[in-house]
Amino acid sequence: MELHVPSKVAASLGLRSSKRAARREKRRTIDFARGTCPPPVVKTPRVDRLIEGAVGGSRAELIAACVGRADNETLVEAVNELVRLDRSDLAARVSVDGREVLAAEGPALKAVAGALCRAGELEAVLALASALFEEEEEEEASVTPHPARVFGPLACLLLRSGRDPRATIERWRRAETRCPGSPAADFNPTLVEARKARSLASLFAVLDVMEAAGARGDDRTFEIVAQAAVRSLDFVAGAVSLQTLPAHDLKEAVFIGRSNVGKSSLVNMLANRKSAAFVSKKPGKTQQFNYFAVNDFSLPNNRRRQSSGGKKKKNASSSPSWDPPGSFYLVDVPGLGYAEVPKAARREWADLLEAYLATRDQAALAFHLVDSRCGPMPVDRDIFAMVKRSLARREGPPLRYVLVLTKADKREAKKNAVPDAHDALRADLAEHLGDDLARDIPILVTSATTRRGRDAMWRHLKHAALPSLSERGS
Ligand SMILES: Nc1nc2c(ncn2[C@@H]2O[C@H](COP(=O)(O)OP(=O)(O)OP(=O)(O)O)[C@@H](O)[C@H]2O)c(=O)[nH]1
Ligand SMILES: [Mg+2]
């Protein structure tokens, strides 16, 4: 017979119950047939068994000498034990020696890399990484290494200790290109660490690694990315003419498209805010160029936010030049082509948008949104023509033009409409902009409801957030 009793009662009856289990479980099971709680799981002393009978040398030396016979669980224990014995030099050696055993099982590899990182053995983890991912490529087929399980803990350690992790992350990217397969969840701890360290450059570098690994982010991934990339969002201005556009030196990402296509909703999705930009079922909601500052800590109320709340990055005021705070603007503009807006207002918005695209130096990125249920409509073709004229006139810094199919979650969109809209867009682009220009224009598929496409959009937003890094091609 089994009976559930609270762990405190179990303890007062003198029944065995570890403190940890008591904390974790509110109730425990007593097996009255045996009169005890189930015994706590006792670890097999694998390392002891491994060195049984061996003589001469210290315990650490014996472990190192015998570890060639170890399976991966024993190897993990051995590395942990060596680290505990303050012999991380031996831990490093046995992990490199045991690389083939470790490579066969991702979690064991992660455990060893984690133990070495905790011991501060950076060089050892790098040596293990080199031995696994940069040597003998013909061995790849027989093992299943997961670069994220070695490079992830290493990058975390560097971020935690305030060091520049970019060279390591670049090695990680190369390793993923050679032996892809790290699951998306293995990247999240490093993204969290980059968020804590407020290192946007590292965050985006890890996203590049994920792309190389073919790892699609999960919901958690993009929650972390949005939290890290948008630490503050402030509505700063609603402009109705070129003269009233706010003056600043940051880059801008603008959302253009027909009325009701979902521009304001995408702004909210990317910023991880419910209603920063007003959304409405009724077309014509947005009536001016709405400027949202992202991470602009020069704004008066943000200075306080930068210096208070949460864990502060060491030397937050003087972040290194390779790791800027990622300040930029999201610009939500009125939709074009809505018949119920007076003709004069529609003309004014279209003229302002064209002048903006042609002359605004800060404009770095234009997302043109098209409804995935119906593909390009006449107003979208007017926008293609407008973009072509503006880009031809533009003398300032280059402007990236990206097409975005919206509302991909809608029932009508699911019935094959997305691929159809995609093909129709490609054809229209080639017709209106010419093959050469059209070929390089990305088409992304998104949904503000399911949040599909956040990763792809952030890959482009990165160029507005970190322009100095993207200019250098990093
Ligand atoms: N199902 C679904 N609905 C969406 C999506 N994006 C936007 N909507 C809905 O579409 C309507 C219009 O969205 P808005 O974001 O206001 O569109 P807009 O392009 O800013 O519209 P204007 O400001 O009028 O130009 C709202 O009812 C949204 O809830 C989406 O991805 N999926
Ligand atoms: Mg809007």
TrEMBL record:
<keyword id="KW-0717">Septation</keyword>
<dbReference type="InterPro" id="IPR006073">
    <property type="entry name" value="GTP-bd"/>
</dbReference>
<feature type="region of interest" description="Disordered">
    <location>
        <begin position="300"/>
        <end position="322"/>
    </location>
</feature>
<protein>
    <recommendedName>
        <fullName>EngB-type G domain-containing protein</fullName>
    </recommendedName>
</protein>
<keyword id="KW-0547">Nucleotide-binding</keyword>
<keyword id="KW-0342">GTP-binding</keyword>
<keyword id="KW-0132">Cell division</keyword>
<dbReference type="GO" id="GO:0005525">
    <property type="term" value="F:GTP binding"/>
</dbReference>
<feature type="compositionally biased region" description="Basic residues">
    <location>
        <begin position="302"/>
        <end position="315"/>
    </location>
</feature>
<dbReference type="Pfam" id="PF01926">
    <property type="entry name" value="MMR_HSR1"/>
</dbReference>
<feature type="domain" description="EngB-type G">
    <location>
        <begin position="249"/>
        <end position="467"/>
    </location>
</feature>
<keyword id="KW-0131">Cell cycle</keyword>
<keyword id="KW-0460">Magnesium</keyword>
<dbReference type="GO" id="GO:0051301">
    <property type="term" value="P:cell division"/>
</dbReference>
<dbReference type="InterPro" id="IPR027417">
    <property type="entry name" value="P-loop_NTPase"/>
</dbReference>
<comment type="similarity">
    <text>Belongs to the TRAFAC class TrmE-Era-EngA-EngB-Septin-like GTPase superfamily. EngB GTPase family.</text>
</comment>
<dbReference type="GO" id="GO:0046872">
    <property type="term" value="F:metal ion binding"/>
</dbReference>
<keyword id="KW-0479">Metal-binding</keyword>
<dbReference type="InterPro" id="IPR030393">
    <property type="entry name" value="G_ENGB_dom"/>
</dbReference>
<dbReference type="InterPro" id="IPR019987">
    <property type="entry name" value="GTP-bd_ribosome_bio_YsxC"/>
</dbReference>
